[in-house]
């Protein structure tokens, strides 16, 4: 399948998933009498709200028509898309063309490596394409798991969230963490829908994990930013950590993720305890794949 066809097919599936989440009453339409055969809005109702013909909208969902920017804007409003979902829809439509994707093996950028070396008390990980884990520091290994024991081809954050028991047990709100990481992975799929390694990852996890299969089918998307995570660590207990991204200017496909705690909080003190524990019990150097 060509990149263009793959985008159009995914756009259709995305539109279908979003309209099925809306009821007629949510968008100001009368709920027709009788039971509906499918959940959510009908195609004809979306077309009516967007002031386009039902045939035009049907072709969009079938991947046989490319929408104009005004139509996409209208559909974003009708389907109540958030900023991330709207950006995803435009990218799939080809209106915000993605840069050419490089599929050569990634190595952590030297600048990010130096930053990892300097973060002695801050857990930090470098993620590459498909959320592959390219590098980490001892604090990240102490917080999450010993990444070095995981084969390079399996060293992927989304995979570990779903398939690694030690990481899964860290999150009391695992469902939310898993769905958020998966939604970010779907943004990757929009940028390079024909990436064979991404297709293999999605295929394997869909077969292995029913939660992944169900949530991937929901076509949720999310943009990267900042946020807060709560983790229950087996050594130091509960940690409330703020995470943020730093994108490498020379390679935008590499992102440094740091996790910090507000000074003066119990989580801040526990990170210091974790750093001391890591220094005593492990001698892992900063590693990369």
UniProtKB/TrEMBL annotation:
<dbReference type="Pfam" id="PF17765">
    <property type="entry name" value="MLTR_LBD"/>
</dbReference>
<protein>
    <submittedName>
        <fullName>Transcriptional regulator</fullName>
    </submittedName>
</protein>
<dbReference type="InterPro" id="IPR001387">
    <property type="entry name" value="Cro/C1-type_HTH"/>
</dbReference>
<dbReference type="GO" id="GO:0003677">
    <property type="term" value="F:DNA binding"/>
</dbReference>
<dbReference type="InterPro" id="IPR041413">
    <property type="entry name" value="MLTR_LBD"/>
</dbReference>
<feature type="domain" description="HTH cro/C1-type">
    <location>
        <begin position="36"/>
        <end position="86"/>
    </location>
</feature>
<dbReference type="InterPro" id="IPR010982">
    <property type="entry name" value="Lambda_DNA-bd_dom_sf"/>
</dbReference>
<dbReference type="Pfam" id="PF13560">
    <property type="entry name" value="HTH_31"/>
</dbReference>
């Amino acid at each position: 399948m060509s990149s263009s066809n793959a985008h159009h097919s995914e756009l259709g599936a995305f539109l279908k998933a979003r309209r099925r989440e809306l009821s007629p009453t949510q968008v100001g339409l009368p709920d027709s009498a009788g039971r509906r055969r499918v959940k959510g809005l009908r195609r004809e109702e979306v077309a009516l709200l967007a002031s386009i013909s039902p045939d035009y909208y049907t072709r969009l969902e079938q991947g046989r028509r490319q929408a104009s920017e005004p139509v996409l804007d209208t559909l974003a409003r009708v389907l109540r898309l958030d900023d991330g979902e709207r950006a995803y829809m435009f990218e799939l439509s080809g209106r915000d063309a993605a840069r050419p994707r490089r599929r050569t093996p990634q190595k952590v950028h030297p600048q990010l490596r130096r930053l990892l070396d300097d973060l002695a008390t801050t857990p930090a990980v470098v993620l590459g394409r498909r959320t592959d884990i390219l590098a980490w520091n001892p604090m990240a290994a102490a917080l999450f798991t010993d990444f070095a024991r995981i084969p390079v081809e399996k060293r992927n954050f989304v995979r570990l969230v779903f398939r690694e028991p030690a990481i899964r047990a860290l999150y009391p709100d695992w469902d939310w963490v898993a769905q958020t990481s998966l939604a970010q992975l779907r943004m990757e799929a929009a940028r390079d829908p024909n990436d064979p390694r991404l297709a293999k990852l999605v295929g394997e996890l869909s077969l292995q994990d029913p939660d992944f299969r169900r949530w991937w089918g929901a076509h949720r998307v999310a943009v990267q930013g900042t946020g807060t995570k709560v983790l229950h660590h087996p050594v130091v207990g509960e940690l409330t950590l703020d995470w943020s991204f730093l994108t490498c200017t020379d390679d935008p496909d590499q992102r440094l993720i740091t996790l910090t705690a507000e000074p003066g909080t119990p989580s801040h003190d526990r990170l210091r305890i974790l750093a001391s524990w890591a220094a005593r019990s492990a001698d892992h150097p900063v590693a990369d794949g």
